[in-house]
Write a structure and sequence with these properties.
Layout (H helix, E strand, L loop, with lengths): L2 H28 L2 E6 L7 H16 L4 E6 L10 H7 L4 E5 L23 H14 L1 H6 L3 E8 L4 E4 L7 H4 L3 E3 L4 H8 L3 E3 L6 H6 L5 E4 L1 H6 L8 E4 L6 E7 H5 L3 H8 L3 H25 L3 E4 L2 H21 L7 H15 L2
Parallel strand pairs: 1-2, 1-3, 6-7, 6-8, 9-11
Antiparallel strand pairs: 3-10, 4-10, 5-8, 5-9
Helix pairs in contact: 2-12, 4-12, 4-14
């Protein structure tokens, strides 16, 4: 190659590198808002992957002006600390599970009441959104945040390692990991010993016999490999747990209204139903894995189901009485929830 040719090649390479650098700088300059999103689910979970896809939609909808960095597996903050992390601005957005925060989302948590007939995450998500759109008490619970998504997981079940739960008598005395709130109270009323515990601690606790089992849902069972240490799975549509994607209000208010609307265009009800469907798909895969791995799925007899349901209905009426106030007709709110459940049932 001649000297002139070498200089020509070198010039072209230099120009290409310079152009790439300029394009990169332009892209950097275009991104005006870099937001952090705290997830406690593992990076490989369907939930985290769903939020990653949502983050890409946000970037596209805002023409690259908003970029969201996801921190999975509790690397930014632990599951129980996520709400405070959003409040304080430690993270901009948090994937929040309401059951970690008893008494803070009392009316959103209406779907956590036991055995109300909720049989899917999509159904429960539609119920919650209808309540959010029509009931001021729900908006009041979220007034300090910008809500981007509101959805639920699939119906929870009782998983045990040694003793199958086929009747109310079988649950007596069992040490069961349970989220705080209605689920914990109900498990206690049924005669078991509820133990509050984050999902990351469950595997070893079951393995070492610290707990006999748990109240959990299939997607979570798969994400945390609980099927490796439990044998029995009692399905009874116990309850569903609400999840929210919440953003720090101050951070949200710092973003121009036009960009806010662009973000909301790929958030909201339909995106929340998609998140619920993601839970359902993941749950179905785990259930198949449980069965193929030798796990035993237990369906209660009508008599056994009634035993659990009578106690659950009594607790639900106690909830109505406890939440009655001058501002809220809790019985009407509860009745409306039941009507919405019937409306959205397939």
């Amino acid at each position: 190659m001649t000297t002139a040719k070498k200089f020509q090649v070198l010039f072209i390479l230099t120009l290409a590198i310079s152009s790439a650098a300029m394009l990169s700088s332009a892209a950097e300059a275009k991104t005006k808002y870099r937001l952090t999103l705290a997830m406690y689910d593992p990076a490989q979970s369907a939930n985290t992957q769903y939020q990653e896809k949502w983050a890409e939609k946000v970037k596209k909808a805002t023409n690259g002006e908003v970029e969201i960095q996801i921190f999975p597996g509790g690397t930014l903050c632990s599951a129980p600390d996520t709400l405070d992390a959003v409040k304080t601005g430690m993270c901009d957005i948090g994937w929040v599970f309401t059951s970690f925060y008893p008494n803070q989302f009392q009316f959103i948590d209406v779907v956590t009441l036991p055995m109300m007939g909720i049989d899917s995450a999509e159904l429960a998500t539609n119920v919650l959104w209808s309540l959010y759109e029509t009931e001021p008490v729900i908006k009041e619970e979220l007034k300090n945040f910008q809500m981007l998504m509101l959805f639920t997981n699939t119906p929870n079940l009782i998983g045990t390692s040694q003793k199958p739960v086929k009747s109310l008598a079988d649950i007596s005395g069992l040490k069961l990991r349970s989220p705080t709130g209605a689920a914990t109270t109900m498990v206690k009323k049924w005669g078991a010993n509820p133990i509050a515990m984050g999902p990351g601690d469950m595997y070893q606790s079951v393995q070492k016999g610290v707990i006999d089992g748990y109240v959990f849902e299939y997607a979570g069972i798969g994400n945390y490999a609980m099927n490796e240490v439990t044998k029995y799975y009692t399905e009874m549509n116990l309850y569903v747990g609400p999840f929210m994607l919440l953003m720090n209000k101050g951070r949200w208010d710092s973003i121009p209204a036009k960009i806010q609307q662009q973000i909301l265009s790929v958030s909201g009800r339909q995106t929340s139903i998609g998140a619920a469907a993601c839970f359902s798909e993941d749950a179905a895969k785990t259930r198949k894995k449980v069965i193929s791995g030798g796990g035993t799925v237990i369906k209660l007899t009508p008599e056994a189901y009634t035993q659990f349901k009578v106690a659950a209905d009594k607790y639900n009426q106690e909830w109505v009485s406890t939440h009655k106030s001058a501002d809220v007709d809790s019985q009407a709110f509860f009745n409306k929830t039941l009507q919405l459940i019937d409306k959205y049932k397939k």
